[in-house]
Specification:
Blueprint: H1 3-25, E1 31-36, H2 44-59, E2 64-69, H3 77-86, E3 91-95, H4 96-99, H5 118-126, H6 128-139, E4 145-151, E5 156-160, E6 174-177, H7 181-190, E7 193-196, H8 202-208, E8 213-216, H9 218-223, E9 232-239, E10 243-248, H10 249-252, H11 257-291, E11 295-297, H12 301-307, H13 309-316, H14 320-328
Parallel strand pairs: 1-2, 1-3, 6-7, 9-11
Antiparallel strand pairs: 3-10, 4-10, 5-8, 5-9
The protein binds beta-D-galactopyranuronic acid (GTR).
Length: 330
Amino acid sequence: MKKRNFAKLMAVAFAFGATAFSFHANADPKMVLKASDVHPMGYPTVEAIVRMGKKLEAATNGRISIQMFPSMQLGGEKEMIEQAQIGALQIARISVGAMGPVVDEVNVFNMPFVFRDEAHMRKVIDGPIGQELLERMTNGPGSRLVALGWMDAGTRNVYAKKAVSTPEDLKGMKIRMMGNPLFVETMNAMGGNGVAMGFNELLPALQTGVVDGAENNPPTLLAQNHYTVSKVMSLTGHLIIPEIFVFSKKSWEGLSKDDQALVKKLSAEAQQEQRKLWDDYTKEAETKLKALGVQFAPADKAAFFKATQPIRDKYGSKYAALIKRIQDTK
Ligand code: GTR
């Protein structure tokens, strides 16, 4: 961890430590739950948690509220997970990509082309597999988090200054991937050079040419200003990775059973609400990106599927039964 991030983490940890103590010291203490997201205000994931906070406040007559720290104010997702694990942050909205190194089994969702399309992914997270994986993320050894719900993050495509329609086009290109070996290997298999990097370091890396491109969904390309450098999104569709929002287990244990039940109920509502926000924002983002001069280029998905088969073989073999259940979800 960078020194600056560590200092930030400690400052937050200290600040929350004091607040957490007052939960028990007062008869009717006010609880301010800190929430964090890498995206800015207005982005669907952020908005869904802000709305959840308003409902929480209304349901508890102002006793519990959520304070949102958007736009990577508390660092990248790795830092957010660490803060939540020690109770310095209560709610972290992160990608399942960032959870792979914490709870190995969720890497099933991080494999290239594991879902047929976004509708398939939604069916899976809404059904028993989604529920089981939330439980696994809550009870898995070393997790120290309570996984509250899923959110949508569309389909990830490669973006760069030029179109990459085939694995050959990616040759020699450094493409930023999320910090999880599975993603770096996926990009290498796709023909490029995968570079693991925190999301908080990506925009300057694109600007200075440390990387030639990245991969993500259209809303991110817009909201994070990556389009100012990368003007072509090639529809590789190699990953469909849902997001999650998790609660610090340490802080969770300080909530009454009734408050826990309320947070769980509102989380289920936030999951559905975010989906609507997501669909609207995605359409809007695509329109805006086109108006800003971004091109959406076709790509040979079949070639990328074939190129990434060794990744599914390598990582998928230990979860063969789960993958079969995902494939059988219609
Ligand atoms: C976005 C996601 C973020 C973050 C980012 C990344 O789609 O919303 O939570 O994980 O991708 O690539 O790091």
